UniProtKB/TrEMBL annotation:
This is DNA polymerase III subunit epsilon. It comes from the Bacteria. One of its GO terms (molecular function) is nucleic acid binding. Residues 9-182 form the Exonuclease domain. Residues 234-254 are annotated as: Disordered. GO terms for biological process: DNA metabolic process.
Amino acid sequence: MRPASQPQIVRVIDLETTGNAPPAHAVCEIGWQDVALGEDGRWELHGDGGNILVNPGRPIPPITQAVHHIRDEDVADAPWWHDVARPVLDPWPRRLALAAHRADFEQQYCTPSLTRNAEWVCTWKCALRLWPDSPAFSNQVLRYWRKPHGLQHERGLPVHRAFPDAYVTAHHLRDMLNEASLAQLLAWSREPGLLPRVRYGPDRGKEWREITEESLAGFLTDRDPDVRHTAETEYARRRSGGHVGRATPQELLL
């Protein structure tokens, strides 16, 4: 009997690291959870996922250990990143794309040579588009605000460990893929984030539509690319009758 064919997947990745800036910092754990398109046309979590501890080749600073609780002795005998990364990141030919929450961070370590030039879905950027009413857009706030169907609470703990975080993100990705196409999620992920509300200043918390022209002009040269992109988009909307925020049904069908 021939084995059943494996479905194509989007693989959600989460990393725990020694810090935020490679090459000074390195990976000490990778976790993953797959999301696959079912025969009924709906996306669902697929397989058990997993995690692997990684020897970062340097001490883990105490301030970082306090976040993920991975100690130097936990990774002393673990494999190196270059031995671990490719098999996890590149389950070719089944993988359609990779995904992560704030994927720009993972992409610093998961370089194109390790991923076979995979495209990435950033679930943070996509959440800004699809669920702009959320009170915040971290992985865990979305978890408790949306309460995704089927998410097993204990399996998504502890927070700031690679598999539980990937598992939670995979539920957000599943729901996103069942609202919008993969092509649309990838397109949003290539752009800076489109923020539904002003982050700081006198207009903090307001929707961008609500602020004055003078206030908006000040954000057009902001150093934060997400703020600047959102201000430019709102400026264009006011000039052309477009919109910022929740996507239309037509846009979701890119």
